[in-house]
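$ ./design --mode recover --in tokens.txt
reading tokens...
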């Protein structure tokens, strides 16, 4: 025991204990590695994590309007709807004071939010504000605020406006998610279906998922033989054909989409050829554009390279001797292909299918231009609320649901196929 030397007693040439020196070197290596990764980590946080976090926050945030009408909402919460059809005078008084002395810019932004809850709020508040300003200017404050507001605009006696205000009294609200699923609140704040004329999102969600699945299947059917041909041709021929596969990436997406509009319209190239061949009569031209059919055709062609490239990269490393060995052992070509070759292409099919589906479910430009009224996907409504109605809460809720759907499909894919099976060769 006395001859054994403890490692803690070992010293470096500088006289520092070896164990301490090793820990210091390890810390330096970890710090160096972190500094090398930090720019990429910062880039991901700023461009990916923070926008998603902001989207999720906006999808439930209602704090802006609460800051404008905080006193009104506090009094509103005291209203017993079972006893009185309309709120008490305290609610009308708080609203009067906040409209009279509140900031115009903040009130204007709040009106936009109120109009999302029920149409007519903006015009109601504006006409009422004019009457309130006249009374304040004359220094004639009303004795009964309820009667004053109802006389200014009789909509203040309509209970549906007050029930709609109940959707905005909290700083956070799930109403945008319910709206994104064609649902809303009734007067008792119970979740109910929207009116028949306003149910548009569920149909659009179903259509988006359906078209995304169809496009993925069509890309697989068309891309598999092309990738197989590229993988088995001599290199000089496969390189030439690969140029044609990559050629669409050298052309603007807008130009390709516009070209499909020209080809698919009733007086376009495809209908013209079919009429020339006698397959169609001149009066029986097909409507191939501004509908789901045009969306499927255009999206399949545009996303096809994203299926071919993963398939090709996997197929080109599959040894050709596998098929020959299977046939030498007595298997027919079809059986050898089905039992030996096809299972080895599953990583490529998985990668291509997932890539195409992810791109298709969030596609915007092509369905917007080619789809018309019947071919618009959920991306249309996200862009519409983002640019036109400025309903960022509903826009964020639609985006969050789309993200959730993708995560569910990703989870199912991982459970069924396994994410480790995705390979690019």
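writing sequence...
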């Amino acid at each position: 025991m006395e001859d054994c030397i403890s490692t803690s007693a070992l010293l470096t040439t500088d006289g520092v204990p070896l164990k301490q020196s090793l820990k210091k070197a390890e810390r330096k290596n970890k710090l160096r590695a972190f500094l090398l990764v930090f720019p990429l980590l910062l880039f991901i946080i700023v461009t990916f994590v923070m926008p998603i976090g902001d989207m999720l926050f906006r999808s439930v945030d209602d704090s802006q309007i609460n800051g404008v009408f905080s006193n009104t909402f506090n009094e509103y919460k005291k209203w017993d709807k079972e006893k009185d059809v309309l709120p008490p005078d305290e609610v009308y008084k708080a609203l009067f004071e906040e409209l009279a002395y509140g900031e115009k810019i903040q009130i204007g932004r709040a009106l936009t939010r109120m109009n999302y809850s029920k149409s007519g709020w903006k015009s109601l508040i504006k006409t009422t504000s004019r009457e309130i300003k006249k009374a304040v200017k004359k220094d004639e404050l009303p004795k009964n605020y309820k009667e004053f507001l109802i006389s200014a605009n009789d909509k203040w006696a309509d209970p549906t406006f007050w029930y709609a205000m109940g959707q905005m009294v909290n700083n956070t609200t799930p109403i945008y998610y319910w709206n994104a699923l064609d649902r809303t609140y009734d007067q008792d704040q119970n979740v109910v279906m929207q009116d028949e004329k306003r149910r548009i999102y569920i149909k659009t969600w179903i259509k988006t998922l359906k078209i995304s699945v169809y496009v993925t299947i069509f890309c697989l059917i068309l891309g598999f033989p092309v990738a197989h041909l590229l993988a088995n041709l001599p290199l000089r021929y496969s390189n030439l054909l690969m140029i044609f596969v990559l050629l669409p990436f050298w052309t603007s997406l807008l130009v390709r989409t516009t070209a499909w509009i020209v080809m698919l319209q009733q007086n376009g190239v495809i209908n013209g050829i079919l009429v020339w061949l006698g397959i169609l009569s001149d009066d029986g031209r097909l409507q191939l554009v501004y509908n789901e059919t045009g969306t499927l055709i255009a999206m399949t062609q545009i996303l096809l390279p994203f299926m071919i490239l993963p398939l090709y990269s996997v197929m080109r490393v599959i040894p050709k001797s596998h098929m020959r060995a299977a046939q030498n052992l007595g298997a027919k070509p079809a059986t050898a292909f089905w039992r030996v070759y096809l299972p080895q292409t599953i990583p490529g099919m998985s990668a291509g299918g997932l890539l195409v589906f992810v791109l298709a479910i969030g596609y915007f430009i092509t369905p917007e231009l080619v789809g018309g009224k019947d071919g618009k996907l959920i991306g249309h409504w996200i862009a519409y609320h983002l640019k036109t109605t400025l309903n960022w809460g509903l826009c964020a809720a639609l985006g969050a649901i789309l993200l959730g759907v993708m995560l569910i499909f990703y989870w199912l894919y991982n459970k069924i196929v396994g994410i480790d099976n995705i390979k690019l060769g």
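exit 0
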